[in-house]
Amino acid sequence: MKGVALLPDTASTFAQQVDLLFWFLTAVTVFFTLLIAALVLYFAYRYRRGSTASRAGAKETDLRLEIGWSMIPLTIGLIVFVWAAKLYADAYGPPPDNALEIFVIGKQWMWHLQHPNGIRENNELHIPAGRPVKLTMISQDVIHSFFVPAFRIKRDVLPGKYNTVWFTPTKPGKYHLFCAEYCGTQHSRMIGWVYVMEPAEYEKWLASGGEARPGALASGAGTMAGVPTASLVQAGEQLYKQLRCNACHGAADGQRGPSHYGLFGKKVKLRDGTVVVADEAYIRESILRPLAKVVDGYEPIMPSYEGLLDEERTLQLVAYIKSLKKPLQTAEVKP
Amino acid sequence: MSVAVAKPGEVKHNYLNAGDTVLSWLLTTDHKRIAVLYLVSVTLFFAVGGLLALLIRLELLTPQGDLMTSENYNRVFTMHGVVMIFLFLIPAIPAVLGNFLVPLMVGARDLAFPRLNLASWYVYMAGGLIATWAMVNGGVDTGWTFYPPYSSSYSTSQVTLTIIGAFLIGFSSIFTGINFIVTIHKMRAPGLTWFRLPLFIWAHYATSVIIVLGTPVVAITLLLVAVERVFRLGIFDPALGGDPILFQHLFWFYSHPAVYIMILPAMGVISEVVACFSRKRVFGYHFVAFSSVAIAVIGFLVWGHHMFTTGQSVYAGMVFSLLSFLVAVPSAVKVFNWTATMYKGHIEFRAPMLYVMGFLGLFVIGGLTGLFLASLATDIHLQDTYFVVAHFHYIMVGGTIFGYLAGLHFWWPKMTGRMYPEGIAKLAALIIFAGFNLTFLPQFVLGYLGMPRRYHWYPEEWQMLHVMSSAGAALLGIGYILPIFYLLWSLRNGAIAGPNPWGATGLEWKTDSPPITHNFEETPIVTEEPYAYENHHHQEEVASGTGASAAEG
Amino acid sequence: MVQEQAQQKVSIQFEDIAQQNESYIVGMWTFLVTEIMFFGGLFATYLVYRVANQQTFWEAHRHLSIPLGFFNTCVLLTSSLTMALTVHYSQRGLRKQQLLWLLVTIALACTFLVVKGFEYHHKFVEGLIPGANFRFEPAEHMRVAQLFFSLYFAMTGLHALHVVIGVLVMTILTVLIAIKHPSVQDFIPIELTGLYWHFVDIVWIFLFPLLYLIPR
């Protein structure tokens, strides 16, 4: 038996916050368990049949008591609810602007991760300490779940829909990465490592194209050495041209299709009058199933790319479209 | 027959000796006999589920996953879940104790629809046998939750057969639920008003409402998965146009309330036993009764707390989280009331009472660790880890099975006419309590460390905790085997019980043990409040000769 | 008022005929609640997908025949009326009228099934049966259209199954009444069947607009 772990690593800002709540709840649990156990044992002993303890004044019901012990769990519950909801909204909400964006593809039974500069890793993730990291995740087959206990972070990885989560690693080290949603035969082998590195070391790692690796590697894992590492955006640009997306989507809104410049993060009005925010999920859906959300003022004429693009190439396209900023000369005109 | 010994030369009629051919059992419409049929069946399935659990714990003794292949391991834990939940926990208390006691407690000669009741057992057996058939013909590896698209498009195991089995078992519990609702509404004895009903009946009424409202939804949902799998219709698989998250919503809409289907009847048992062995009316009767109803109602609104990490909207998550904290309140109210019932009682340490005391401790832990999972931020970390596994075993084993065993011992004399052997029963209760805690306490730690559920392999540094857990499981196994032997032994050799060995209140104790076929010689008339132990106090103490010197309040 | 007639046998578990009758009625209602939840799961699934794919569902629903659907709605509504008449005469103990209206109800139910059969056949000819041979124009809509037809067949199929069960039960009752079997001497069996039949009817009242009348 190798070592005994009783406490998990705490390696993200979120982990610190969650732990505080966790230990508060643990204290509540221990307190009430001991309280009930003590009362049960004490009553059982003192009022055992045949004991001489006075039974005078035993009641059948007491409204004040009932209200009292309804309010105690209610109050504790409400406090914990607010405390936890705040943290939850942060973790699953939008990340800070300087977040490092990593794309994650889950498939039976491996993790495939892509850095913005094109470095790809399997079952390993290298990230710098101190900088927020945003994961945009999708599954190629069944439901998986990206789980790094040291960060207290978990998010399901769904087929057909992007899910995001962000966190800020704090402590350099090597941490477990698990798939937490049962996904078939090799579920317990869909695991890997997250390496949190000092920023300087991380820069070195980036510069070497992911070759400089500290620490031992799990077999079969690692950066795909030798793969030409065009950045995600470059790969997406190539694909964009190859698929002739620019034939309809120009620098400005055209007759056939709206422009992609400055699209990301913008509010888009649809034909049916609803307004959606153009996030990764919207862009992905509009590529694969263009008719699901047709932009106001346009005809539903775009062909579907479903089945023609795998998740990886879709990601590249999404990354490229995200990178298209509004040209400076165009005046900011609100629609 | 055993009862013949009671009065030599005179065989008293009862439901057990009303016919001794196999057919007289298989075609019976007597709720008590059907309860016995269920008792035998659920015990068999419990043994199967228990053996599967032992296999899991044996495998997890070592981190390398060297006992079986991953494929087999996945099948074993799936079938452990399917068997324990659908074939044991859901029917255990309602279909065995409930079936036996609901008509007795309301003073009726049988349930409203005796043939429907028998049909329920046959449908249950058909479902159970189909599930067993699936098990021996390759098994099923989706987890008992059947999440698509894995279950509908990827798994190569016997998903369809197992779903048909689960579908049928669902219908058997619907039949039982309808029977209870009608019986409790329409067949109460004269004078037995709603607030004179035993809390066991309140609990079963709330349970039946959940069964009737929830089970059909999961039935149709599982059916859709099977249809998607067989005909490649696209309903939940995103590759076919569907949404796998919708399945989870529909599934948990039933399966969270199903937790209350499993625990509420146990709570009913606890109320009866704690009152009897404390010689006191259950403290705050109305609050305990209505908390069952509150649990049934709010329990239907909390299903989304199984899905905090799936990507449902943050606001939906908050609503489900808030409601989950609310549903904790009625459970807490019950625990406080049972504890208060013991205050200034005359407590007798019989085996059922030991189970009740164990229940109180374990259910508190199970309930409070539920708060970790209702709380959004901690759930992100703990969801799908061993923390969840430990939490629901504290509720399902520490709650439901302790309640079931308490009830089985408490009403064993009523069901069989014989007493179980007290000493060894107490020993078994202690072993089960110790073994259970040793098995599942380490799993809370494992979950906090990050050990995911349904893992065949795990990192070496967690082995110590797994070894502790497996050792506990062995102890627990011994604890479970004991009752099977001494209860069977008592059928022939136990002391004759008499109609009311505990000096308990309630209509079921006013008839013979075992009861006659139609329960009562004549329809009883109820004139007193439930748990009127103060009325029975004097005569009982004189009779039992305990020489109590308690001051009367 | 209920006419004096040969009373049903009271089963051993009941105190009297009133308790027995009430129990059966409460039991039937409880059963219908489970049925509502059963269909409810399907309706919920349908509504979620329809809200998400309004446009394509509209395209797909144009392949359903509104005239046939409307005709079937009328048929079922009429059958509810004839069923109500059956119950009415049954409570009065008028055997001949009871038989007559029961037979009319069965005939209407069969009409519904035949029309439904024509509709299904038409879908088959058009290649609208979900599965490998599913065809839909325009092709971009195929995936979601298949979802629509999957739900269409699941919902109307389950409903049709309920109609078939209704026909079987009513046929058995007809025979029993015709031979003056003691088990149908009072109105409870007809009353219960009536409740069931109205439920089947109401389900269709929801199905028809949901599936056939989708606004653009």
Overview of this structure, please?
The complex is a heterotrimer of chains A (335), B (553) and C (216). Chain A is built from six helices and 13 strands. Chain A is an alpha+beta fold. Among the domains of chain A are: 100-223, Cupredoxins -  blue copper proteins (Immunoglobulin-like, Sandwich); 232-323, Cytochrome c-like domain (Cytochrome Bc1 Complex, Chain D, domain 2), CATH 1.10.760. In chain A, the strands form three sheets. Chain A has a six-stranded mixed β-sheet, covered by helices on one side. In chain A, strands 4-10-9-6-7 form a five-stranded mixed β-sheet. In chain A, strands 12-13 form a two-stranded antiparallel ribbon. Chain B has one domain (2-540): Cytochrome C Oxidase, Chain A. In chain C, 76% of the residues lie in helices and 0% in strands. Chains in contact: A-B, A-C, B-C.
* Overall CATH architecture of chain B: Up-down Bundle
The main β sheet of chain B shows up as: none
Number of strands of chain B: 0
Order of SSEs of chain A, N→C?
HHEEEEEEEEEEHEHEEHH
Low-confidence stretches of chain A: 214-222, 224-228, 330-335
What is the CATH C level class of the domain at 100-223 in chain A, in words? Mainly Beta
CATH-level-4 superfamily name of the domain at 100-223 in chain A: Cupredoxins -  blue copper proteins
Biggest interface between chains: A-B, 93 and 101 residues
β-sheet strand percentage of chain B:
under 5%
Radius of gyration of chain B: 23 Å
Structural class of chain A: alpha+beta
Instruction: State the distance separating the first and last CA atoms of chain A.
Output: 66 Å
Characteristics of this structure?
heterotrimer, A: 335 residues, Immunoglobulin-like, Cytochrome Bc1 Complex, Chain D, domain 2, five-stranded mixed sheet, 6 helices, disordered C terminus, C: 216 residues, mainly alpha, Four Helix Bundle (Hemerythrin (Met), subunit A), 0% strand, elongated
